[in-house]
């Protein structure tokens, strides 16, 4: 790459929003995996108060809403995503139960013990797995649930190329066993942990990106940072197909003790 951007967070937020705002999901995941994680939550047919941190444009939030009763507050740092989130909620007739607000996951505008369930897909690394689990616990009722997906190693050893990519992006990245022990130390009992299937990366993440890259580049013609951003995303996809046996997203579901 010609310029200095080497991590997704180094890119301009307008570019990130322009690119990912074109997609239904901003990270790997699927309705099936969201529903599977939800199935581990006792009483999920009751009226629950749910928070979805780093909700993006709300792909997983709308699935949650369609499969639960009660209310959901989505929170994301980018106003652009929250605008699309609230439009999506309205389109699906969910606006009375689902509301998106702008905010940061490390400075939450909520009351202590406000939620039955805290959800977060593909984003806890932004605050740090351990820090997020500890901080967010304060906003959960006793016996409340947390369900997060987090980048995880599947093996103890990895080839250098993939090790470097993920340690640069997520310095704390660890194995599944390590992450479960962090969750337990943070004061949750483990309810379930399962690996997101490959199609959560291909069908809902990489393939939809391929479809929008051309129009994104056309709109941002001549913008070197936009070109570098697409190259970075293509490199992430290449690495996945080469090294997917070494890492992936794991859904961790815990219950506050
Ligand atoms: N949960 C969505 C999904 O799975 O499609 C989005 C996941 S995307 C990989 C990460 C999200 O984290 C983006 O929507 C981004 O705007 C959001 N984000 C990053 N830092 C954040 C912060 N400090 N507070 C809230 N949201 C943040």
UniProtKB/TrEMBL annotation:
Q: Which UniProt keywords apply?
A: Methyltransferase, Transferase
Which residue ranges does the record assign to the Methyltransferase domain? Answer: 46-152
* InterPro entries linked: Methyltranfer_dom, SAM-dependent_MTases_sf
SUPFAM superfamilies per record: S-adenosyl-L-methionine-dependent methyltransferases
A single MF term (Gene Ontology): methyltransferase activity
Output the GO biological process annotations, alphabetical, semicolon-separated: methylation
Identify this protein by name: Methyltransferase type 11
Species of provenance: Formimonas warabiya
């Amino acid at each position: 790459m010609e310029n200095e951007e080497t991590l997704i967070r180094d890119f301009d937020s307008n570019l990130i929003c322009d690119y990912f705002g074109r997609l239904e999901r901003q990270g790997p995941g699927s309705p099936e995996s969201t529903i599977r994680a939800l199935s581990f939550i006792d009483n999920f047919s009751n009226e629950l108060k749910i928070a979805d941190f780093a909700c993006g444009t709300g792909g997983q939030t709308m699935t949650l809403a369609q499969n639960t009763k009660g209310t959901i507050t989505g929170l994301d740092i980018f106003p652009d995503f929250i605008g699309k989130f609230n439009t999506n909620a309205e389109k699906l007739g969910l606006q009375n139960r689902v509301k998106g607000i702008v905010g940061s996951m490390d400075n939450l505008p909520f009351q202590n013990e406000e939620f039955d369930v805290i959800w977060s897909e593909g984003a806890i690394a932004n605050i740090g797995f351990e820090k997020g689990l500890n901080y967010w616990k304060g906003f959960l009722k006793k016996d409340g649930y947390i369900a997060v997906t987090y980048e995880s190693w599947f093996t103890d050893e990895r080839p250098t190329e993939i090790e470097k990519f993920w340690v640069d992006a997520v310095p704390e990245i660890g194995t599944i066993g390590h992450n479960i022990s962090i969750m337990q130390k943070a004061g949750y009992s483990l309810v379930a942990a399962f690996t997101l299937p490959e199609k959560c990366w291909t069908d809902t993440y990489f393939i939809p990106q391929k479809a929008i890259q051309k129009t994104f580049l056309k709109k941002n013609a001549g913008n070197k940072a936009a070109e570098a951003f697409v190259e970075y995303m293509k490199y992430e996809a290449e690495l996945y197909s080469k090294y997917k046996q070494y890492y992936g997203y794991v859904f961790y579901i815990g219950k506050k003790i």
